[in-house]
Design brief:
Blueprint (H helix, E strand, L loop, with lengths): L1 E9 L9 E9 L5 E8 L10 H6 L4 H6 L4 H15 L2 E5 L6 H11 L13 E4 H11 L18 H5 L7 H18 L1 H8 L4 H10 L3 E7 L2 E12 L6 E5 L5 H4 L3 H9 L5 E4 L7 E3 H5 L9 H13 L1 H21 L12 H5 L6 H12 L2 H7 L6 H15 L5 H16 L11 H15 L3 H22 L2
Parallel strand pairs: 1-4, 4-5
Antiparallel strand pairs: 1-2, 2-3, 6-7, 6-10, 7-8, 8-9
Length: 472
């Protein structure tokens, strides 16, 4: 199966509220030979205030933000069309599982499109950051890395590959591809392992069928290896739940539910979470058996622990009940999704597969007609957020066609969001936030005339946005 490598440059770090500014995709065969590429840049999405640090890092000038010859919606359509043309494939990014894939998914969702294109229809997705960390753990000389003050390898792509035009979508994609090729050549067993866990279904099958396996987790700046045995799928999230083999299950099986819950709440954990939809790298058990504390446990004791866990159905049921309680407690701490801005209603995104077929048909119909007809369809959706997004799309692309009352209503909604008159705590960049960022950067750059000129241009640009919406 072919590979697709990609990178996004965005207006900020909010996967829900920021905008794609630049995208680069490269199609290769499984020998890493380039077959095709797609390079896109668009104007800043209407109603978005950029984060200053983001646009400085990815060098998105005011001219590019205002005058690129492609709109945000046109870019979204172009990406979707090309990926459908190239599918099925393994789709790779760098640090992409928690950012680029999420950004794409939410972008498509806001565009009334199928959000799971990268991991459905035969497509599988992976993260080269996960793979190079695993390769470095197993084969330290595979690549030289900078070392952190705490003595841990640093895996920032710009420092790892030291390429020109770092933080440009094309340059970062090319280096990501080169890194994948290096891993496949010098640590092929790790590369093959990563291909086996590039989908939720493949990961679940692997961990269920292995007597023991190694789960890799990265925290506190270090990759750690856990020798595990599969117990169950999480009762809510459907991730794998595995027993950490350093712990003797007999010490926990006799605990009542309350005591077991306390034990499961403590660190270090007695169980490990296998995020099967996040492209984990799962290694053969032998890697863990060579490292402490597992190397000090005899094979006979490990086998006894596995047998005991497998036959302890009631114990596993108690663990499942407790995990469900943890999930419920976590949900209660969050704000009511219906009270949030529509971009924040993640329960709708992650339950997209439960969207009624008739709603999906309306979404497809919306994209198949011209803008005048879209106006007739934009309030016909059953789910309220789809009506909101449909109105926003028409406002952004063909606002002059909207009835004045709807145009003004959408504009007021955007104004309330980016001007934030109540000074609420929000998870996107407001106009006031941007001015604060400008002031901080000016204090650092007062002896750099070129930098100060650039900051003045950004400031004037956002002042223009503020002026446009202050009268809404």
């Amino acid at each position: 199966m072919n590979y697709i490598f990609f990178d996004l440059e965005t207006s900020g770090s909010s996967t829900s509220h920021d905008s794609i500014l630049e995208a680069f995709f490269m199609l290769t065969n499984d020998s890493f030979q380039e077959l095709d590429r797609l390079s896109l840049r668009c104007r800043l999405k209407e109603g978005v205030v950029p984060n200053l640090n983001a646009v400085l890092i990815n060098r998105s000038t005011v001219n590019l933000l205002k005058n690129s010859n492609m709109s945000w919606y046109q870019l979204v359509n172009a990406i979707e069309a090309k990926l459908r043309q190239w599918s099925p494939a393994y789709i790779w990014g760098y640090g992409s599982v928690n950012f680029d894939f999420e950004f794409l998914r939410k972008t498509w969702w806001k565009s009334l499109k199928e959000p799971y294109l990268t991991n459905t229809g035969g497509n599988k997705q992976g993260d080269i950051l996960h793979v190079i960390r695993a390769a470095k753990l197993v084969k330290d000389d595979i690549i030289k890395t900078p070392i952190s003050p705490k003595g841990n390898p640093v895996f920032k792509l710009a420092q790892l590959m030291k390429h020109g035009d770092a933080h440009g979508a094309e340059a970062d994609t090319i280096q990501c591809k080169k890194l994948a090729e290096l891993i496949a050549k010098k640590a092929n067993s790790i590369w093959r392992s990563s291909l086996m866990t590039a989908s939720r279904a493949d990961t679940d099958t692997l961990i269920k069928n292995e007597k023991m396996f190694c789960n890799l987790e990265y925290f506190y700046g270090k990759l750690r290896i856990f020798l595990c045995h599969f117990l169950m799928l999480h009762p809510v999230y459907k991730w794998g739940i595995a027993w950490d083999m350093q712990w003797a299950p007999e010490d926990f099986i006799k605990m009542d539910k309350k005591t077991l819950k306390e034990a499961m709440s403590k660190s270090p954990k007695i169980y490990r979470l296998i995020r099967s939809n996040k492209a984990p790298v799962i290694l053969n058990a032998n890697y863990g058996l060579e490292k402490e504390p597992y190397s000090k446990i005899s094979p006979e004791i490990l086998n006894k622990r596995i047998l005991l866990l497998d036959k302890s159905t009631e114990f596993k049921n108690r663990i499942s009940d407790i995990l469900k309680l943890f999930a419920e407690e976590k949900t209660k701490k969050k704000d009511d999704p219906l009270a949030l801005h529509p971009e924040d209603r993640l329960h709708n995104l992650y339950n997209f597969e439960f969207t009624p077929p008739v709603e999906k048909q309306k979404m497809q119909q919306f994209h198949s007609v011209d803008w005048k007809e879209k106006i007739n369809l934009m309030d016909k959706f059953k789910e309220d957020h789809n009506n909101i997004f449909a109105r926003r799309l028409v406002y952004e692309e063909a606002g002059h066609l909207l009835p004045k009352s709807i145009f003004n209503e959408v504009k007021r909604t955007i104004a309330e969001k980016i001007l934030n008159p109540k000074n609420d705590k929000v998870n996107w960049t407001t106009v006031a936030d941007f001015y604060s960022q400008i002031d901080l950067e000016r204090n650092k750059s007062e002896n750099d005339p070129m930098r100060m000129k650039l900051l003045d241009e950004y400031n004037d640009y956002v002042m223009g946005i503020e002026k446009k919406y202050s009268k809404a």
